[in-house]
């Protein structure tokens, strides 16, 4: 049975309970992170925790906890290995349902683990490419805050699945923003393009790593506005997320991207990811 963390306790998942008046349950008044651990070691852990603190400050939720030892202990109690840790912090529970809140509320902190595949032990040929659709971005305008109001994301993924696609890329005012659970990259003539960081997208930790690796290996990249025509004319398209890494997109709205296969620059970036992850696991980074 899996062990979860809830408000200072490690306990079996079946024993974990929160109040029906918790604002995370009632209003989505909460933030979250999803952090991969490989061989029991957090991947880009400090970057995830920096983003968590940014989201908490934006919502003015103040749990005042040391996150790293809590998560490391949770992973250890679940056997270590390759796990995805989901961490959610809500504003807490009041005595009744009300839109107003005050700073005396005690935040609810919950974390659990899910087994994941070590994507970096597989070769590039073993990575399954993705098919995507493009749809309207109906989310609120603070997408830089990793909060739990994910209904628009859920709906567009369902829309994609209904069209035999794996993911949905969203556009707002004619500009590409991101996927339902990923950032997006467009490659043209050896240059990596990605939407500008701002309140319309989430600053993904894997997105930042891609740009870091590109800098270290003199691969040109730019943050630009990307319209639908630029997206469809791309030589390659990638998506990225913490648990999926960097994945090639081979089809958009039923039409192939480039030659319809994994592109050469993606293979280069995937190999750079493998090298980075191996260095992290061996402590040589």
How many helical elements?
7
Structural class: alpha+beta
Helix content: 25-40%
Q: Estimate the global geometry from the Cα principal axes.
A: globular
Count of distinct structural domains: 2
- β-sheet strand percentage: 25-35%
Strand segment tally: 15
In the CATH hierarchy, the third-tier topology of the largest domain is known as D-amino Acid Aminotransferase, Chain A, domain 2
CATH architecture of the largest domain: Alpha-Beta Barrel
What Rg is obtained from the alpha carbons, in whole angstroms? 20 Å
* Unreliable parts: none
Report the end-to-end length measured between terminal Cα atoms: 34 Å
Largest sheet: 9 strands, mixed
The name of the CATH superfamily of the largest domain reads: D-amino Acid Aminotransferase, subunit A, domain 2
Order of helices and strands: EEHEEHHEEEHEEEEHEHEEEH
CATH class group of the largest domain: Alpha Beta
Whole-number average pLDDT?
94
Structure report:
This protein has 285 residues and is an alpha+beta fold. The chain folds into two domains: 3-115, D-amino Acid Aminotransferase, Chain A, domain 1 (2-Layer Sandwich), CATH 3.30.470.10; 124-282, D-amino Acid Aminotransferase, subunit A, domain 2 (D-amino Acid Aminotransferase, Chain A, domain 2, Alpha-Beta Barrel). Helices cover 28% and strands 29% of the residues. It has seven helices and 15 strands. It has helices at 23-27, 45-59, 67-77, 151-162, 205-216, 228-232, 264-282; strands spanning 3-6, 9-12, 30-38, 41-42, 83-90, 108-115, 130-136, 167-172, 175-179, 183-188, 191-194, 221-223, 236-241, 245-252, 255-256. The strands form two sheets. Strands 7, 8, 9, 10, 11, 12, 13, 14 and 15 form a nine-stranded mixed beta sheet that branches. The protein has a six-stranded antiparallel beta sheet with strand order 2-1-6-5-3-4. The model has no long low-confidence stretch (mean pLDDT 94).
């Amino acid at each position: 049975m899996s062990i979860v963390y809830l408000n200072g306790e490690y306990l079996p998942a079946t024993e974990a309970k929160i109040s029906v008046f918790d604002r995370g349950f009632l209003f989505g008044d909460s933030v979250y992170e999803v952090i991969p651990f490989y061989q029991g070691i957090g991947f880009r852990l400090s970057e995830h925790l920096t983003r968590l603190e940014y989201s908490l400050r934006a919502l003015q939720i103040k749990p005042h906890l040391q996150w790293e030892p809590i998560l490391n202990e949770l992973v250890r109690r679940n056997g270590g290995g390759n796990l995805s840790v989901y961490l959610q912090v809500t504003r807490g529970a009041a005595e009744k349902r009300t839109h107003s809140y005050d700073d005396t509320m005690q935040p609810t902190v919950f974390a659990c683990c899910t087994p994941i595949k070590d994507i970096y032990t597989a070769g590039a040929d073993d990575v399954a490419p993705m098919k995507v659709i493009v749809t309207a971005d109906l989310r609120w305008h603070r997408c830089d805050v990793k909060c739990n109001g994910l209904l628009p994301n859920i709906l567009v993924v369902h829309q994609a699945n209904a069209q035999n696609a794996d993911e949905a890329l969203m556009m707002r005012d004619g500009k590409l923003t991101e996927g339902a659970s990923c950032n997006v990259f467009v490659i043209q003539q050896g240059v990596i393009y990605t939407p500008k960081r701002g309140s319309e997208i989430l600053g993904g930790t894997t997105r930042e790593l891609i740009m870091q690796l590109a800098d270290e290996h003199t691969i040109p990249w730019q943050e630009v506005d990307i319209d639908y025509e630029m997206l469809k004319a791309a030589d390659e398209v990638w998506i990225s997320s913490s648990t999926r890494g960097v994945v090639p997109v081979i089809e958009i709205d039923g039409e192939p991207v480039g030659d319809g296969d994994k592109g050469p620059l993606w293979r280069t970036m995937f190999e750079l990811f493998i090298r980075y992850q191996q260095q992290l696991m061996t402590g040589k980074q």
